[in-house]
Amino acid sequence: MADFTPEQLQAWPLFASLSAEQCTQLLDRHLQSSHGPEQVFVMEQDWGESLFLLRSGMAKVRTYTADGDEVVMSVLGEGDVFGEMAALDGAARSADVVALTPVTLVKLRAAPFAALLQQDAGFALALARLEASRLRDLNQRFAIQSGDATTRLLDALAYLARRSSSANDPQAVIPALAQRELGLLAGLARETASRTLSKLRSRGTVEELEAGLRIADLQPLIKRGLLPANSKGG
Questions:
Q1: Are 221 and 215 spatial neighbours (Cβ–Cβ below 8 Å)?
Q2: Euclidean distance between CA atoms 23 and 18, whole angstroms
Q3: 162: which DSSP letter?
Q4: 198 with 99, same domain?
């Protein structure tokens, strides 16, 4: 597997403010690895002094309720980091991170990461923006949990599309995922998610491609307030 270079690290928005020398510091003794779907990288309540960069693929951040029900907190896409909070505050991991598709990971040491956050205001601000974006997504997803099945599934599909795209495009192709995963993200039973997805396909709202799913028509999302009115389909 080709080595991960400082220039490649700089290409991700979180690290764009850093110099090549600073990126070299972050990559000191880094490890790169590939994994298949459903592999668990981080386990809740584990301790760790490393953080991870998702170089390719998608993963989910999950936890469980007191009744043992799985809850998907967020989805990670290319260029996302995870494990950074436990690495910074020394507390146990707050959730599992599990591959949704084949992924490539870069494991980074926490010490250089924490040092650069203190030294470089631009880097610290970029991390704060990333965390704010995640919180905003989480707030919207929880805000619609009382909505109907169609609204919840459309929101989940748009969220997955944005996480699949470096351009944050709600019409990006969503990698083929098990319908159970779509249901978990939308807060729906697998059967309900399957039935709702079939209805969206028949209406032409969602199209099935060889590579996965794509939202073909944004108007139903705009009408439900899931996207701004100036969003354009195509």
A1: yes
A2: 6
A3: H
A4: no
